[in-house]
Fold this sequence. Notes:
The structure is a homotetramer. In chain A, strands 1-2-3-7-4 form a five-stranded antiparallel sheet, with helices on one face. A five-stranded antiparallel sheet of chain A has the order 10-9-11-17-12. Chain A has helices spanning 37-47, 107-114, 130-146, 185-200, 228-237, 258-261, 331-352, and strands spanning 4-5, 10-14, 21-27, 64-66, 70-71, 74-75, 80-85, 100-101, 150-158, 161-162, 207-214, 242-247, 265-268, 271-274, 282-283, 286-287, 292-298, 307-312, 317-321. Chain A is α+β, with helices and mostly antiparallel strands. Chain A starts with a strand and ends in a 9-residue tail after the last helix. The first copy, chain A, is globular, with a radius of gyration of 21 Å. Chain A has a single domain (4-360), classed as Chorismate synthase AroC (Chorismate synthase, AroC fold, 4-Layer Sandwich), CATH 3.60.150. Chains in contact: A-B, A-C, A-D, B-C, B-D, C-D. The A-D interface holds A 1-4, 8, 10, 12-16, 19-23, 25, 27-28, 31-32, 65-69, 71, 74, 76-81, 83, 113-118, 123-124 and D 1-4, 8, 10, 12-16, 19-23, 25, 27-28, 31-32, 65-69, 71, 74, 76-81, 83, 113-118, 123-124. Strand 12 (242-247) of chain A pairs antiparallel with strand 12 (242-247) of chain B, so a sheet runs across the interface. Chains A, B, C, D: Its cofactor is FMNH2. Chains A, B, C, D: It catalyses: 5-O-(1-carboxyvinyl)-3-phosphoshikimate = chorismate + phosphate. Chains A, B, C, D: GO terms for molecular function: chorismate synthase activity; FMN binding.
Amino acid sequence: xxxxxxxxxxxxxxxxxxxxxxxxxxxxxxxxxxxxxxxxxxxxxxxxxxxxxxxxxxxxxxxxxxxxxxxxxxxxxxxxxxxxxxxxxxxxxxxxxxxxxxxxxxxxxxxxxxxxxxxxxxxxxxxxxxxxxxxxxxxxxxxxxxxxxxxxxxxxxxxxxxxxxxxxxxxxxxxxxxxxxxxxxxxxxxxxxxxxxxxxxxxxxxxxxxxxxxxxxxxxxxxxxxxxxxxxxxxxxxxxxxxxxxxxxxxxxxxxxxxxxxxxxxxxxxxxxxxxxxxxxxxxxxxxxxxxxxxxxxxxxxxxxxxxxxxxxxxxxxxxxxxxxxxxxxxxxxxxxxxxxxxxxxxxxxxxxxxxxxxxx
Amino acid sequence: xxxxxxxxxxxxxxxxxxxxxxxxxxxxxxxxxxxxxxxxxxxxxxxxxxxxxxxxxxxxxxxxxxxxxxxxxxxxxxxxxxxxxxxxxxxxxxxxxxxxxxxxxxxxxxxxxxxxxxxxxxxxxxxxxxxxxxxxxxxxxxxxxxxxxxxxxxxxxxxxxxxxxxxxxxxxxxxxxxxxxxxxxxxxxxxxxxxxxxxxxxxxxxxxxxxxxxxxxxxxxxxxxxxxxxxxxxxxxxxxxxxxxxxxxxxxxxxxxxxxxxxxxxxxxxxxxxxxxxxxxxxxxxxxxxxxxxxxxxxxxxxxxxxxxxxxxxxxxxxxxxxxxxxxxxxxxxxxxxxxxxxxxxxxxxxxxxxxxxxxx
Amino acid sequence: xxxxxxxxxxxxxxxxxxxxxxxxxxxxxxxxxxxxxxxxxxxxxxxxxxxxxxxxxxxxxxxxxxxxxxxxxxxxxxxxxxxxxxxxxxxxxxxxxxxxxxxxxxxxxxxxxxxxxxxxxxxxxxxxxxxxxxxxxxxxxxxxxxxxxxxxxxxxxxxxxxxxxxxxxxxxxxxxxxxxxxxxxxxxxxxxxxxxxxxxxxxxxxxxxxxxxxxxxxxxxxxxxxxxxxxxxxxxxxxxxxxxxxxxxxxxxxxxxxxxxxxxxxxxxxxxxxxxxxxxxxxxxxxxxxxxxxxxxxxxxxxxxxxxxxxxxxxxxxxxxxxxxxxxxxxxxxxxxxxxxxxxxxxxxxxxxxxxxxxxx
Amino acid sequence: xxxxxxxxxxxxxxxxxxxxxxxxxxxxxxxxxxxxxxxxxxxxxxxxxxxxxxxxxxxxxxxxxxxxxxxxxxxxxxxxxxxxxxxxxxxxxxxxxxxxxxxxxxxxxxxxxxxxxxxxxxxxxxxxxxxxxxxxxxxxxxxxxxxxxxxxxxxxxxxxxxxxxxxxxxxxxxxxxxxxxxxxxxxxxxxxxxxxxxxxxxxxxxxxxxxxxxxxxxxxxxxxxxxxxxxxxxxxxxxxxxxxxxxxxxxxxxxxxxxxxxxxxxxxxxxxxxxxxxxxxxxxxxxxxxxxxxxxxxxxxxxxxxxxxxxxxxxxxxxxxxxxxxxxxxxxxxxxxxxxxxxxxxxxxxxxxxxxxxxxx
Lengths: 361, 361, 361, 361
């Protein structure tokens, strides 16, 4: 339980940080899609460690291999199995924390839940698992793109540096042109400086990723429990280090009055639009055709390069020393993960919408 | 798809605002639980309209009947079917909006999705559906209580009136002693005044509900996708009018450094605790035994007692006039709904945790 | 777990034999279907007790009420909730077996599983639950009929009276013209005589129901685990008293050689057909467009009008006396249940097939 | 959809006959199980081709690698990912049937469903996929064995050679001592001769596998739809070439009267037993603690070493020539597959049963 995501378009992952390999199985991708492996590779490059001075300097090549589900370059409708090898990891690196519970990691909770844990690099709880999500999401993205739907995420906050929430003011494509993935070059520079300063303090800091989805047809969402934003929220909250999710007007919308918040319907370009979009493109849990946008809060990474007091499995007080190469701020590398999970939700809900009306069957 | 919630402990609901009845089916409640119908009734009273001057003045009696799954006062392990009659509703009340799309409601999206919609009172998209959730959640709550787990929600924000986020400063039981359900009596008075003022403006306003879960055992959660907080987030986001969810340090935690944010493990009372609880009782998606707490943002209700411009099904510009009796602020009545959904998640995850370890089978 | 069937087109049932009511919730029926309540009523009449001298003489009116999901005569895409009242049942009738385990009933196993059981009439394990299936299946049938797919079941064996297995020799519509539901009038008479004789012996006897599905499009089925016939098999085996399922050539096909068994493809009427149909319309778990047919074995009903030795909950030897009005042979009334379950499978798989090809999305 | 089996203990497979590799992902195996890789290897040896003169002479080494979920020899509760390499397969072998529909194979139906198919060796529809099932089932078997539950299958029919249905007459362990896997040595010889004769005719023949499960605790099964035998039936019907399933008295039981068929409860060895076991160890869909037994019918393999008339994708009449090395009778190699699927069902239902009673939580 818990290793699969989606109903019709479905991703299952397996693998631990320091096991032999990670895996991603994508079920339900419609047959006949021309799959571009380079686009998968590109997404994995965006996530991989060591890509800049503000990410961990660990080297992971993230070479993947598609084992099934693709024939002569096209998807066949059968499950697409992908394996991502873990390059040679030195397990002895982790002997010093083998029986220690690192603060605000999952060491203690996995131990309580299972009575046993693979302590090497966090095992299954490591964010390394998200490599499999990005691989699977890259397939979802290609499927969506074939239907005109695009997804773009970017960094909108680092610590207390907050980008203007009106994303229409920015050219979102600029986000990929700097190492922090913020579409405002000036703000990007400030964010990079802040992360770098935190890194030198041997500390970490949190951030926010905003995601915008364009060209979603109206009608996607499965009320009452599987509302489109509820599934998006779950998808985001399932990513390591995420503490919050809001869409449309979000927590700020709380302060508004209904007369300000309501989005007026208008006819435009031969179809229904809304003048404002406080709804975030979703009304009653169903897409209305406007941009879908949401914000995802990431806490500061728990691994810091400092000594911390903690407990070991025997209940004794111990010192946990920060070692290795870790991210001072996770959001630049989280951007493709947010996009991947969003793509998986949209792909799934697009398929689900195909049986809503009798006339469509 | 979308009308059930949960894997082992599972709620399914059916019913429209102005249909004959609503229904709640609870599957997976362990056999042998003494079920107190009065406690279900109590929860439904907390949700029902017309309970105070700051809620809608609509009258709904919300009488329910248990049709199955209980024998001689105890649950039998078979599904518990509950029907909640809709008292005589005047459908003609809705003729004036039969073909109009009310702004920021689900009228347009349901129409796009299904090509047909029950326009009476919002049909399936009406918050009336949450009555079935409260009934189901009241059963989950009783199950959890038999295992020592308690859930308490309260109003922590109305408009820009924000309660101190440190809930330990308040006696949470006081929340039920005022009509806005805020545990700080002074703040409660201010919130009530604000809502009343907004009501007189024929407008609405948003709010936040905070929820605290105590005595959860360590080990609940199903990573990687079904993290405990991810499922709680989905549960909350599935409630009408919710725009955001955060747990533990939430969006504010973004601004912290890792060295501040990490929760130090200590031994206390013979078991592992943390000195702080920025984690919100969940680490790596699994409960650690500390209090679980989270915040849920509700937008201002879309129905306002004012004229608004909109479109009808033919794409023509029309005026939608606010009629009827609606809530100026939804959060006081949302408190039991938040608790119900939280109870459903916890009940489900408690059952799921029973097969984690070989020694437990 | 276990009270729902189907993925996209999904039936959930609740209710016990002697509880207040049964319920059926149908999710996923596409919106816009004109629903004929009389056709639901007709199916329930075919299942109901007391319809002839060879069925139980119990009276159950099986009045049902649709509570949701239908608006102005059409399905809206929201869940269709149906309640079937249990007419006034005398619970004291069952006091004599309250702590006894009836042989080959579910009394003992429910008690072991749940530690508590509603002993009145078998509680949840009673075949009365199938009334809810027939109601739900009647909706699936109407959906399928709108797409040209028809389902017809009939009795093909009672005890050792076995109808010729080549169903094409019979006018299947004749099955509804006699009380045993066998399409061969002469065989029907013999079957009726046999059942009547068994009834007079205060005993019961088994039988087989054959089901034929016509006009299924090619392409329905979800290999590898959810093959179309695997889901049909599960559906049938979930019906009370069923002991076996075979499709196409079935157990007899075991004796054949590959060269005899293989169905030759031919072009006919502008589409692909097979000369023979040992495959039963399903190849590799996917429909091929030919008739789907299968046989379902029902054991003799466990309730006999004789004294039997057994145990009570205390482990003491007791006598269980047959009382009440029970079916001497269950297959005549099982015909509409088999059809209902088949319709649910086909409806579900038809919806699932809508997202197989990229070109269809 | 369709590539996973099970709810809590869950197997997902991927891979095609001639793709790079097959995969099996096992979720939900309780943590702390000592996993013996040799036992997995042993099961795969029992299934692999080329093991005797009556099976295909193809060579497949079926080397597998466990990529995750096991740490220091024990399961950790995280998904166990297994990859089975496909050794170098000559794809050109299949050029001659690239656009032809082989009779009674899945070529036509996959083409209709997906509009594209991997024609090499049947692609996903090949029985090679069952190698992944056997690997996953071998883990389930070890879990069950740790709880005392054992599963043994054997060949009980080949063509019209039928073993006495009373399995208690045989020492079932003898089944593994001959190449046809029949526990009666004399019958085994006759079966081997028959298969050999059919092979020389360049033809194939069907058979039946019987499976016996011992030491199941009472209480396993999830009525009403997920009855234990319904899930076992689905599991078996999901295996390639299966045409029928019956448990306990099965189709023969149809001819019995209730007074003969009912199993009398008796107290023995301090617990409840039944004198006979026509119920096949399952009553009302729930295990009663007696032996569970069932029979599975396999059709004659569709690939025969003869020329057959058929169609190609263009609708033209073509000749399909039998080539390669195929099984003249599939049942000897199906024995471990039946056991694997049975083990998966039992493991899953054992876990599901852990939350039935309040006192167990």
